[in-house]
Amino acid sequence: MSREPAQAETTEITILGREYRVQCREGDREALNASVELVERRMRDLAETTRASGERLAVMCALNLAHEIFQIQATGGVDLVPLRRRINSMQSRIEEVLSSQEKLF
User: Fold this and answer.
1) For the purposes of burial, counting CB atoms within 10 Å of the CB of 61, is it exposed (0-12), middle (13-18) or buried (19 or more)?
2) For residues 51 and 58, is the Cβ–Cβ distance under 8 A?
3) Which of 3, 20, 21, 46 is deepest in the core (most CB within 10 A)?
4) Best CA proximity match to 42, nearest among 73, 16, 21
5) How far apart (Å, rounded) are the C-alpha atoms in residues 105 and 98?
6) Confidence band of 99 (pLDDT split at 50, 70, 90)
7) φ, ψ at 6 (rounded to 5°)
8) How far apart, in whole angstroms, are the C-alpha atoms of residue 13 and residue 43?
9) Phi, psi dihedrals of residue 9, rounded to the nearest 5°
10) Does residue 2 surpass a pLDDT of 70?
11) What is the pTM of this model?
12) 31 vs 13: CA distance, rounded Å
């Protein structure tokens, strides 16, 4: 039984007001949109702090993102301990709020 690879389709994205046509496989649209939002946010932040624009801004953003990826890989991934602590704290807070809401009914 061979599975055919997901078909790619052309879609338009917008980053900093410029439209680009890119290929996106079926099922990857959500990840593409999240990537677009990340790049958009990072480029806007970088543009504000450096006053860079155009190709220079894109290269600086790409280098910053690549650096972050290499740092995560060098440390063996994301440190889950602080994330778990934060999730547990949020979960406790949610439970407190829900229990106080239950008393209202």
Assistant:
1) buried
2) no
3) 46
4) 16
5) 11
6) confident
7) -60, 135
8) 15
9) -130, 155
10) no
11) 0.63
12) 13
